Every structure is written in C-alpha cells, then in structure tokens.
C-alpha cells in the first residue's frame, strides 16, 4: 500500500528571501509571486525562519491610527520588535518548522495541527531547502479518484494483505466514502479491515456491512 509523501505533494522551486531583504522588497516579493509566505535563508541555502503576510501586517497594526479614533496599540515585546523590524531576519517567525520529504501526509498534518501552522518547509538531511508544503497540498489526497481508492482496497488490502477471496467482499466508493459488504470467517477481522481501509489515501469514511462466521471476541465489542 502506497501513501503519498510530503516529497510528492510539496511545491518547488520555492520563492525565497535572503535574511537581509528589506521590508518593502518583502512585500513586493509576496505580491509579485502571489504567495502568502516565504522562507528566510542563510548564506548556505538553509532556512532560518519564515516571513508571512501576518508578520508583515504587524507593522501596520503597530502604528498609531492617523484619525486618532483608535487607542494606541499595546503590543507584547516580541510583537513590537516585529512591528519595528526592517529586514527579513527581524520580521520572520523563527525557528522554521520543517518536514522531511519522506514524511506521510498524516505526519505532516499532525505537526501542522499541533503547532497551529499553515505550512511546513521541506528540508533534506543536511537542512537544505527542498520545497514547501501547505494545508491545501495535504488536502489534495482527498481529490483522489474513487476508482483508484477502490482498486487499492481490493488489490492491496483485501487480496494481498488479508488474503481474502474476491467473492468475500464488495467495495463501493463514492466521493471517498467507502462501503464494505461481505463476510469473513472471524469477527475480530472486521475492525482490522476497517482500520486498514481508513488508512488509504483519499478515504473520507468507512461503513461496513460485514457478516462473520465465528465470534472469536468472546462477545466483546470490537472497536474499529
């Protein structure tokens, strides 16, 4: 069973900014390339941080309202430092949160979720930048065709991994939602089948209607 990796889904080449790039050039770089963030690089091709539209917007947010209607903003020390920053290395969020190209979609998604970030820089074993991957890139796995999902479940999971006969199970996939109909010898095999199906790239949900010949669970509920 093949899982899409970060290396397969990442965007490259990556628009980059040297650490000494001034504020105005950073704004132009984002605008001209239609991106919302760029990695900030040291002299050896390694990312040291990431500067985003949100980082740059702090300069405006930290300014006094010319109309005098808004109160003077109260900023934390780190926010004030960014608001007053003039170069990429003063404006960036650091350190850069990075991923490796061999990571699965699940690994990358968990890091993004845990760190509440929108993107990861992808680096090799030496720390050199390879690409960038965003939440949108990870979600592309759910655009996988239903036929491809069904074929992988039937061929790789049911036949090769579980050694089930083709007549034992039918697999229906619609909009990524998998429905299993069939029968197995032992009840304990049902949650295993469901878990394996859920791990297939592009699967949104799994519903099973699977009969069993022998209850080898002792009557206990088997969580899928």
From TrEMBL:
Domain CBS per the UniProt entry, residue ranges: 10-67, 92-148
PROSITE patterns noted in UniProt: BON, CBS
Keywords, sorted A to Z: CBS domain
Pfam families the UniProt entry points to: BON, CBS
InterPro entries given in the database record: BON_dom (IPR007055), CBS_dom (IPR000644), CBS_dom_sf (IPR046342), Diverse_CBS-Domain (IPR051257), UCP036990_CBS_BON (IPR017080)
Residues of the BON domain: 145-214
PANTHER family: CBS DOMAIN-CONTAINING PROTEIN CBSX3, MITOCHONDRIAL, OS02G0818000 PROTEIN
Name of the protein described by the UniProt record: CBS domain-containing protein
Source species: Streptomyces malaysiensis
